[in-house]
Amino acid sequence: TYQKDEGSIFLGDREVSFSGPKDALENGIAMVHQELNQCLDRNVIDNLFLGRYPRNSFGIIDEGRMKKEASELFRKLGMTVDLTQPMRNMSVSQRQMCEIAKAISYNSEVIVLDEPTSSLTVQEVDKLFEMMRMLKEQGIALIYISHKMEEILRISDEVTIMRDGQWIATRAAKSLTMNEIIKLMVGRELTNRYPEKDNVVGEPLLEVKSLTAMYSKLKNVSFVANKGEVLGVAGLDSSGRTELLENIFGIATRKDGEIYLHGKQVLNRNARESIANKFALLTEERRATGIFAIRDIQANTTISSLRKYRYNGIPLLNDKKLAEVTDWGINAMHTKTPTQKTQIRSLSGGNQQKVILARWLLTDPEVLLLDEPTRGIDVGAKYEIYQLILNLAKEGKTVIMVSSEMPELLGVCDRILVMSGGQLAGEVDAKTTTQEEIMTLAAKYA
């Protein structure tokens, strides 16, 4: 994907220098990227064979062979997938598993997996690790990039730690502990993985009544969120967590239900109306719906707040004002970036997330809807994001946070809503509940 400036790469005993990803694939190296890059309107089979369609003796694409080979691949991997459905209709975790299957289908000698479990459930992670062990037994080398310490220690033979673009250490996984890895990653002791909860929960701010979606199984969800509260949303994959936030924000069609802010009903029929009503949504997929990859930090920071700085439709922002507003976002979020004109795609996942958070804060929201806000972010940056979330709650904002990581919800949130099968299965106090109690509720309607 990128060309090296210096150094050597060896595959077996031969030195290699690939001109691009296709060259690498043809020479036995496949990669599953953290940010999925799929043709969402095409089906699973098309995505699996993209760029290498088999042809029959007449030179026509052999769809029968494609279907047979795809079915055999997913059967071997123990995955049940509707091969004919468009990728758009699948959950992020299902799409992630399809991308992993695609990498395996190349019969590669080396497979690079970049944050492959960031959207997977516990059961899917177990299945992935089972697949990895099977590939390892076949002599395939696996490079597994992750910020999840438990997974690193569970699956790896050796661990290499990187920091600020530099190699720090390579050690046998058996000789490392979680705290040692974290210390090497961040360059200091990190005694607490979560900041102290010192926000004060106030009076009710947001009320959702009987929320039901038109095109998903979200049904009859009601809850109250308070001022200054961090409200978590837990649940298994396809439980309705993301759909809940999307329906509140108006980017998914509601069939029924009402939303009240300060006791007054708000319609939130689309994103523009929701922003005007002081709502903000940080989506799960940064690359697909969050960042504008080829634009710079300034454009990505200010794009949602441009309407705020208008008078009778006339923009009030000039270059100086844009720079001031972007500086505020960079400083408020402690974003590490060379300049405002740096393309956002060159930043780490954590710094990209900070830019998008700054973008939403410039719209001056009262309710922040955060869908997997720390997905694919390293442990040091996670701590900073947690602190930012708690600081926003201390300012009186209401934060509703979806996460697939139970320890994260317990460490950051005040209360946790548990979704199951599109319904609200229960509500628990983060201080007194356990992961087991949450998982029991999550399976209630699954």
What does this entry look like structurally?
The protein is an alpha/beta fold and 446 residues long. Helix content is 35%, strand content 22%. The chain is built from 16 helices and 19 strands. It has a 6-stranded mixed β-sheet, with helices on both faces. The protein is globular, with a radius of gyration of 23 Å. The two termini are 40 Å apart.
Give a nutshell description of this structure.
The chain has 446 residues and is of the alpha/beta class. It is built from 16 helices and 19 strands.
Task: Compile the SSE list and pairings.
Blueprint: E1 9-11, E2 14-16, H1 21-26, E3 29-32, H2 44-49, H3 63-76, H4 92-105, E4 110-114, H5 122-137, E5 141-145, H6 149-155, E6 158-163, E7 166-172, H7 178-186, E8 204-213, E9 221-226, E10 230-234, H8 241-249, E11 254-261, E12 264-266, H9 271-276, E13 279-282, H10 286-290, H11 297-302, E14 310-311, E15 314-315, H12 319-333, H13 349-361, E16 367-371, H14 379-394, E17 398-402, H15 406-412, E18 415-420, E19 423-429, H16 435-442
Parallel strand pairs: 3-4, 4-5, 10-17, 10-18, 13-16, 16-17
Antiparallel strand pairs: 1-2, 6-7, 8-9, 8-11, 11-12, 14-15, 18-19
Helix pairs in contact: 12-13
